[in-house]
Amino acid sequence: MKVAVVGATGLVGTKMLQVLAERNFPVTELVPVASEKSVGKEVEYMGKKFRVVSMTDAIAAKPDVALFSAGGSTSLEWAPKFAEAGITVIDNSSAWRMDPTKPLVVPEINADVLTANDKIIANPNCSTIQMVVALNPLHKKYGIKRVVVSTYQSVTGTGVKAVDQLMNERKGVEGEMAYKYPIDLNVIPQIDVFLDNGYTKEEMKMVNETKKIMRDDSILVTATTVRIPVMGGHSESVNVEFERDFDLAEVRSLLSAAPGVVVVDDPANAQYPMPRDAHEKDEVFVGRLRRDESQPNTLNMWIVSDNLRKGAATNAVQIAEYLAAKGLL
Length: 329
Known about the structure:
Layout: E1 2-6, H1 11-22, E2 29-33, E3 42-45, E4 48-51, H2 55-60, E5 65-68, H3 72-84, E6 88-91, H4 107-110, E7 120-122, H5 126-142, E8 144-153, H6 160-171, H7 201-213, E9 220-227, E10 234-242, H8 248-257, E11 261-263, H9 275-278, E12 284-291, E13 298-305, H10 309-325
Parallel strand pairs: 1-2, 1-5, 5-6, 6-7, 8-9, 11-12
Antiparallel strand pairs: 3-4, 8-10, 10-13, 12-13
Helix pairs in contact: 1-10, 5-7, 5-10
Subunit structure: Homodimer.
Protein name: Aspartate-semialdehyde dehydrogenase
Pfam family, one: Semialdhyde_dhC
């Protein structure tokens, strides 16, 4: 299968190449794509070097599928051009997520919505993906009424510039700033820009995308998203109110049996998910499972996942795997 990776030189694009190789995706020809300033550079895949090409050359190469991780404006301009050429686009930006004509997919939950006619498929926000993977089996059983989530998000979610800022600050070196404020030894309660309602775009992504992926507009979601000086993954404190009461042992059993979920929940031995343990893993890790004693039918949980993998690259590759398996590419 001929595969294009658009944004191949970025953090997520690099991770996409790594995940394609690790999961033995049937790549017969790789077409790495990046901005004009990166054309001619080389990327490595499966021990070989491949030259980065332009968007126009990539379309001319007629790949079967294009994994996009090049930002929203690039995707808005170029994804339709790839789609018009018959190329299936799996887009990691926010550009198409809430377009009612485009599927927003987490394979463990709603891959069944995909058809051969879907030429632009949206990959959800990283913090949304890990939350809904853990919530979905519980929603099926108990019915979710309301979710209150606070996130603790890795600097890798911002990109190379943010990683460099953190490392520079740790070394006491002056450098380019990805954030308005220092991130080392600090916490920044803002991810993306503020909207008129006082929430950030990242927070509203979690609200809106959760409803679309889980196909239930009745689920109430409120979010606070926070950037912390961490590498390896995003963490989330999630408070879930259900329609029906639950049994904690059954909750653990449902989560343990859910695809893509690993339960790490042994407080007596200080066992719980942490980003350093999720780093370079594809699973969503869940722990700190406990009843909210302040109101009925409500659960507290802690969810951790590698935001560059399941939160971005792996989810996109899993969508491609599903399409290939179903003969939709």
